[in-house]
Amino acid sequence: MDDIEQRVRQVCAEALERDHVGLTDNLIDAGLDSSLTVEVITRLEMQYGVDVLDEFFVEPTVAHIAQAIKERTPR
To answer: What residue spans define the domains of the chain?
Structure first.
């Protein structure tokens, strides 16, 4: 697991008030509702400077969201 995956996982776990969230767990099924999604998106956008809201509708998993951040973050 790389740093971005780890950070996305941490932010999601904190929003869900869980100790652990798997890389491929469906975050919606895990309880991430619309207000928690906004919280997660805002925190990730503040840290990485990219908007990944659309990715929650494509595949709401830590792995997918982390990959989108990697693809959109300038190197």
So the answer is: 3-72
Calculate the alpha carbon distances from 63 to 5, 69, 71 in Å. 6, 10, 12
The SS3 assignment for 38 reads helix
Dist. CA 30–CA 24, nearest whole Å: 11
Cα atoms in the 13 Å half-sphere on the side-chain side of 19: 0
Of the candidates 3, 15, 11, 71, which has an alpha carbon nearest to the alpha carbon of residue 46?
A: 11
Query: Hey, CA dihedral for 59, 65, 66, 69, is it positive or negative?
Result: positive
Instruction: Record the tokens describing residue 69, joined without a space.
Output: 């951040």
pLDDT in tens, 29-44: 999 999 999 999 999 9
Range 46-70 average pLDDT: 95
In CATH, what is the architecture of 3-72?
Orthogonal Bundle (1.10)
